[in-house]
From TrEMBL:
<dbReference type="Pfam" id="PF13417">
    <property type="entry name" value="GST_N_3"/>
</dbReference>
<keyword id="KW-0808">Transferase</keyword>
<dbReference type="InterPro" id="IPR058268">
    <property type="entry name" value="DUF7962"/>
</dbReference>
<dbReference type="Pfam" id="PF25907">
    <property type="entry name" value="DUF7962"/>
</dbReference>
<dbReference type="GO" id="GO:0016740">
    <property type="term" value="F:transferase activity"/>
</dbReference>
<protein>
    <submittedName>
        <fullName>Glutathione S-transferase</fullName>
    </submittedName>
</protein>
<dbReference type="InterPro" id="IPR036249">
    <property type="entry name" value="Thioredoxin-like_sf"/>
</dbReference>
<dbReference type="InterPro" id="IPR004045">
    <property type="entry name" value="Glutathione_S-Trfase_N"/>
</dbReference>
<dbReference type="InterPro" id="IPR036282">
    <property type="entry name" value="Glutathione-S-Trfase_C_sf"/>
</dbReference>
<feature type="domain" description="GST N-terminal">
    <location>
        <begin position="9"/>
        <end position="88"/>
    </location>
</feature>
Length: 336
């Protein structure tokens, strides 16, 4: 009999390789040397593995720890910092935490990703299914024509972004954003869209953005990639699970954390136990997870999905956690 599949540290990352958001998490795990299992997902819908879990959220990546499901890289990284505090990448100093948070807000919640996606080379959009699947994502229809049309504005924005880092925080020749000895959380928060753009052939023409124009930013990216290679070769190998294995591991696990409480000062007025829908506010909002509200705080909302799941998850339930910002939590049938 073969060995029963397991997930190191109870962690499973649902991701596909070209996801720049997914890289935020796989880089974090590699830099920390935290072992996990990967369950690779298709680039477009449907995603049957997630359906089997009864999950409706359609963005990538998703991370599970035991029976707890974490949505959105902001919350995923925060949770990993909390659950594996020894050697965490975030700072303890308030002014550095301020920088990390602002970078997260600008790079993840702000306009950066949308502007960067506007530089996806138009010739890459040659699959009608992909265009249909991503309609409206980052505010575009993803036709070649609209990409071509929007390109100049995105290029101006991205060039300014490179210039911003080159002439401010990296100007003094420091190796890492917070002048740390190793890459820290602030580096992850800042580097992922830049690395994605530099690595995407045809995205940024070399007369506008290049090593020559922005030597410090490029050197930082090279340094980061080298640090990552080093961490990856030292890290425990990633276990790979297929969809059925991942679903089984999750459904045989227990919850990895307690339920938490519902903050009466949240502003929504929602009460513990109310049946709610949870979904991202910006895109993919029609994919809504339904469950009972079990926790609500300034940074996190948790619903327990019971009976709404797929084949396996329905009976026993999963707890689905989302960040509070950028997500909506609304009472089923209500107007909250
Ligand atoms: N704020 C989310 C954004 C996630 C996101 O937009 N991911 C992209 C992939 S890089 C996505 O979901 N694209 C649509 C899809 O894969 O279905 C996060 O930080 O996780």
């Amino acid at each position: 009999m073969g060995e029963r599949p397991t997930a190191p540290n109870g962690i499973i990352l649902f991701n596909y390789p070209v996801s720049p958001f997914g890289r935020r998490v796989s880089w974090y795990l590699a830099l920390r040397g935290i072992g996990y299992a990967l369950c690779e997902q298709p680039f477009i819908m449907p995603r049957p593995d997630l359906e089997k879990l009864g999950l409706k959220y359609r963005r990538i990546p998703i991370l599970t720890i035991g029976r707890d499901v974490y949505l959105d890289t902001r919350l995923i990284i925060r949770k990993l910092e909390e659950k594996f505090p020894d050697g965490k990448l975030g700072s303890e100093k308030p002014e550095e935490v301020f920088v990390e948070k602002l970078l997260e807000k600008y790079m993840v919640e702000g306009p950066v990703f949308s502007m960067a996606t506007g530089l996806v080379p138009a010739q890459m959009m040659n699959d009608a299914k992909v265009m249909e699947d991503r309609k409206g994502f980052c505010g575009r229809d993803w036709t070649r024509e609209s990409l071509e049309q929007g390109r100049p504005e995105c290029l101006v924005y991205v060039r300014n972004l490179f210039d911003f880092l080159e002439t401010t925080i990296l100007a003094d020749g420091r190796k890492w954003i917070l002048n740390s000895a190793k890459p820290s959380l602030a580096d992850i928060e800042a580097i992922w869209p830049m690395d994605w753009l530099v690595g995407m052939e045809g995205a940024v023409p070399s007369h506008v953005v290049s090593e020559k124009h922005f030597p410090k930013v490029y050197a930082w990216i090279h340094r980061f990639r080298a640090a990552l290679d080093e961490a990856q070769s030292a890290a425990p190998g990633t276990a790979v699970l297929d969809g059925d294995e991942a679903v089984n591991v999750i459904l045989q696990s227990s919850f990895s954390e307690g339920t938490g409480t519902v903050d009466q000062n949240d502003g929504s007025g929602l009460k513990a136990g109310t049946e709610v829908e949870l979904y991202p506010a910006d895109w993919g909002s029609e994919h809504r997870d339904v469950g009972q509200l079990v926790a609500l705080g300034p940074d996190e909302v948790t619903v327990e999905a019971k009976g709404t799941g797929g084949a396996g998850a329905g009976a026993a339930g999963l707890r689905i956690h989302g960040p509070r910002t950028g997500f909506r939590v609304t009472e089923m049938g209500g107007s909250t």
